[in-house]
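Run folding on both entries below.
>entry_1
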Amino acid sequence: MLVEIAGLTLLPCRLKGWRKSVVILCGVLLAPLTAKATDDPSLISRLVQGEGKIDAIVSALTQDVRQNPDDAQKWAWLGYALCLQGDWKSAQQAYARARSLVAPFNLAWLPPQLPLDWLNDWRGVGQVNWAGKQLWCSAPTPTHPLTFAFPERHLSFSHLIAVYADDGQKIARQWVRWLMTSEQMPQHLQMAPLAFAWALREFAICFGTQPPLPVTAWLLPDGDGKAETVAGNTQFFGVAPFDRWGWFLKVAHEAGHHTIPAFGTFDGLHEPYSGGFLGERLFALWLWDGQGNLPVDAELMQGIQRFLRSTVIPEIVAGQQWLLRPSDQPPSMPVFLGICAYLERVAGRKFLRTVMEQAGGDDWRAFQRGICQAIRMALNEGLTLRFAVPDANTVPATFDPKGLRLPPTRLAMQLAWWLPAETVQGQLQVQGRGELVMRWGEREIGRWRLPSSLANSPSSLPVRWTVTEAGWQRLRFWWVQGEGQVLSLTLKRSDDGQGEGR
């Protein structure tokens, strides 16, 4: 008996009102290999698909184990079904019975959710600390008594890797079900399921989106290296590229299609909508931020650095230059991605999410409105800008990627920023010695002398000025004498609404 999940369809995919790339959802079949799994040969298929009433399936499996109390496989599937119900005590008892009967390790032991404390000692599953987050990844596991198949390609997917992550409620949810045609995984691909799950979860948390879990990845053994994503499924056609960092970017791109609001249309890259490409940029930046807790070697770190130097840093510079020379035309895709990465670096993940939420559309003009509205909203409580970023005049090849984590020491800096026409006040955090000048456009709005005795600790300097015309300006800092770091600037709307002063 074959149970069809989805046919071959060409679909536009939207995420909470934002368009994503047009991709193709493959035909997939879920087929029981044996009619002996239960009295109803479709029961396990419906259980794994999440179809049918779970209470009825639990009842049927309970009846099965009463009739055949020594059938280890039925006890394991009962544990799987009870996990879907959240009946952890009964599930634990069912799995314990399956263990005592020496049940084989297969898909039945990898339900979509498990208690966190079970994963410390769960069959075939190991814990990994990935950039400060805990993930649990299974070994390649037989899907028996089921097989996942592409009839058009005559391929059967007999093994899977499951990746779990904490959902914050003492429950680990399965984020990725990575299907393979055999137990063997090419060496350069072995960390890809972990990277895919980490990216999916981080993007979903950042942007407040939720893909249908688990996301199913289909690793086809042959193909041209392309990938296609839609509706909870991603197909990877072949094992190219043949390096690990190339695969990290590939899974980050597809994770972006599942979870990141996509703006467009833009020219300049091979897709017109931004979700996948932005996934690549944020993935690289966030791994760079968390590299101290990243299970990678020097080769992978070099891959991250090359991508930051060759792609992300030049795009951030180009994005600022575009903002300072506004045009009625939308930017190219690389410039738009640079603007997004710049906003995330300077104002943070939460700010970038607010920009997208406030946009009210998925084109460039809507994104511009989102930036302005997000800044207005942030000024009510305080908007902190961190200057770990290349500035608008940077020659990209000269910027050390270390400066994406901590603000570098530099004699001068000018960044693009937008403010509404009103009075703002705040605190400038610096560390250095000498004389520092701050300008908004061509206007000097602050000048301070910092003694050498304070050079080794941050100083907080008050600042206040009236913006006479809303718009993008160069926010400039330079050391007339001495040198130091401009760490951050926290701004908020003036309490009294009066004019500028220091």
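>entry_2
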Amino acid sequence: MSTYDERIVALEKDAATMKRDIIYKLDDTNSAVTVIKGVAGTLAQDVKIIRSQLKTMDIRLDGIDTHLSRLEEQQNEQGQDIKDVKRHLDTLDGKLEQVLQQLALLTKKPE
């Protein structure tokens, strides 16, 4: 066999080895891509679930905000009612003082 033929056989052997290595690497790459696609698909589903849960939470928080606003309004109304009652009691206290003074004058013994 000539040197030329030996070189061609060696090149063909090297080419076959390179082809086998490339196919092996492509198979590895395809497997990795498949795994990545699966993970990405799972993550996409998780994101959808999280978004849905966040929307539900937003709705609940809106309800809580509304409830808190109502409570604040009621608290303000009660505060005003307390002020009105206090003002009324102060007025009654003044009138009671006047009545007590009149009673004291009426029950005072002449000197």
